[in-house]
Amino acid sequence: MKHLVLPRLALTPATAAAAPPAGRDLRLDLFRGVALWLIFLDHIPQNVVNWFTIRNYGFSDATEIFIFISGYTAAFVYGRAMRERGFIVASARVLRRAWQIYVAHIFLFTIFMAEIAYVAATFENPLYAEEMNILDFLKQPDVTIFQALILKFKPVNMDVLPLYIMLLLFFPPVLWLLVQQPALALAGSALVYVLAWNLDWNLPAYPNGQWFFNPCAWQLLFVFGAWCALGGAQRLSAALRSRGVLALAIAYLVFAFLVTLTWYVEPLGRLMPTWLSDWMYPIDKTNLDVLRFAHFLALAAVTVYFIPRDWPGVKSPYLQPAIRCGQHSLEIFCLGVFLAFAGQFIISEWSGGPLIQILISLVGILIMVATAGLISWYKQMEGRSPSGRSKPPDADLAGGEA
Amino acid sequence: MKLLTALIATIALNCLPAWGAVAEPQPDACEVPASFLESEIDLTRVTNELKDKHRLDISVLGTGSSSLPGPDGAHFAYPARLEEALKQQLPGNEIKVTAHVQPKQTTANMVGGLDKILAEDHPSLVIWQAGTADAINGVETEDFRSSLEDGIEKIQDAGADVILVNMQYSPRTAAMLDVSAYADVMRRVAQQRNALLFDRLAIMQHWNDIGTFDLYAATKKYDMARQVHECIGRALASQIISTAHLDAVRMQTTR
């Protein structure tokens, strides 16, 4: 029953990688839940509520939060399995998780195809003859479906799950190294990131181009999250408590905010010095630009400073909906993608104005919360409460790694 | 005295069409707020050509969304509408708009054919509509950027001004076709390379938002598509006239 006890102090110096803090850090669930909501909102194009999501106020967006926390929880759950039950068992569980995500991805793809096929059959407008070429792939389902199964063909907004699948496929050896030599593993991850940038490593996509989220680059964030979970956060704790780091982080966030302002306020764009824009742009999402990574780090540093692990707020009933969503991230992520399709569909069918968009955003989040509650109920019914810890942690307990 | 009469007559002639346009009973519902068209970039080549030679040669380079289907599609598409609008507003000048429209061309493809077009048309202005085919084909945004930059360099080296035209606002296909990354590239390239941007995406979204056009509507008829192109042609003409400061040109030529 010792796992039931939440540690009183976040930054208790733990005995390094060998023994990360026991118990669940509800802040992770909270922020992952919020990230899931933001991803849902961002996936409805032309939604007025989009203006409130963090991508409009800095370089990084919800994807970074999500990948980092997923790396963190994956290491938390499977790292323990690796120490207690060995490499084979831990690897088998990681790979099973990858398989679950693959199945979820293909399920979403099917729904997406249904929507596309419907639009192709019903929407016609000579004004959009060119745009409708996007539906050409329906003419050769033999190729398209096969390319989707091998994760080369990924329609808009369906890039995140394939990234996870790749990250998890390569996670067992990375995790082994993280448990043995955390610093070496992190250095290796950084090296792959640098090489990916210099040698243009990425996976090919169909019909052409490359993966929108380059796994060779984004692995850095995932491995960094895992490293933090396995004692790295303790090592950084002194830095994270320092006012100097805080000031630096805030300064960078303000800088990023000012830069993003120039994207949306045309007259400000002219104030941007050419040397700065030449140096800064493009801020590459595909390859997890250093500016984005740094922005996420700054955001995380500020968050951790003001919201310590023993922050009582996580027990507030108002935050439980987000925490619940974060605890069942794979299911809620998939639901979010589906709801974004559905919401978009409703907006197009009934020419939704801002009011409809706000309504759809709210209803979508409510459905996500209700579903997360339902999943919790199922698990409780089956004797596997996500908040209680009567068994060793497993993938479901961690709320899923996706 | 004779000179004075001539002067007044010319001024009057030059001003009349503008008045005439206002007086015409057409409801100008699709008028675009000036903020969409304003820019600090001047179309100096256009200004000079009109001032010195009283002519304006424009080449439009584009893909499917620069044309309309149907046998008389070219007549109703925005390049022809632009020519018409400019002729109305700049009388006494020879205006020629040549459209080079080929469906499904990526920006890299278009850059390949650019030299020939520049050599044949000798344009003082190139209106370059791009991005949609690149988004459909999933061309990497970096490649898209460098193609745009190459093209703009060629056009500017040939001494012509550039207007980039971005994608159409197409809410129905937005779930499958995300053009935002490509639109961002165009915006920044235009800013960095001193090219003008005609923000078709924002303008059409504005029309949709205020109810000028219902761009969600499914229809087989050409009416709305033609009206949209008519409006785009006129908005382009307004942008050219304001950024080339053609009212000033008119005044100068009459002196």
Summarize the structure in words.
The complex is a heterodimer of chains A (402) and B (255). With 402 residues, chain A is mostly helical. Chain A has one domain. Chain A is built from 15 helices and no strands. The relative contact order of chain A is 0.17. The N terminus and C terminus of chain A are likely disordered. Chain B has 255 residues and is α/β, with parallel strands linked by helices. Chain B has a single domain, classed as SGNH hydrolase (Rossmann fold, 3-Layer(aba) Sandwich). The longest helix of chain B has 22 residues. The radius of gyration of chain B is 18 Å and the shape is globular. Chain B starts with a helix and ends with a helix. The N terminus and C terminus of chain B are likely disordered. Chains A and B meet through helix 3, helix 11 and helix 14 of A and helix 8, helix 9, helix 10 and helix 12 of B.
Q: How would you concisely characterize the structure shown here?
A:
Chain A is mostly helical and 402 residues long. Chain A has helices spanning 26-42, 62-85, 87-122, 141-149, 160-169, 171-180, 182-199, 215-241, 243-264, 266-269, 274-280, 290-306, 320-327, 329-349, 354-381. Chain A has one domain (2-381).
Question: What are the SSEs and their pairings?
Answer:
The complex is a heterodimer of chains A (402) and B (255).
Chain A: H1 26-42, H2 62-85, H3 87-122, H4 141-149, H5 160-169, H6 171-180, H7 182-199, H8 215-241, H9 243-264, H10 266-269, H11 274-280, H12 290-306, H13 320-327, H14 329-349, H15 354-381
Chain B: H1 2-23, H2 34-37, H3 44-53, E1 55-62, H4 73-76, H5 78-89, E2 94-101, H6 107-112, H7 114-121, E3 125-129, H8 132-137, H9 141-157, E4 161-165, H10 180-192, E5 196-198, H11 200-210, H12 223-243, H13 246-254
Parallel strand pairs in B: 1-2, 1-3, 3-4, 4-5
Helix pairs in contact in B: 5-12, 9-10
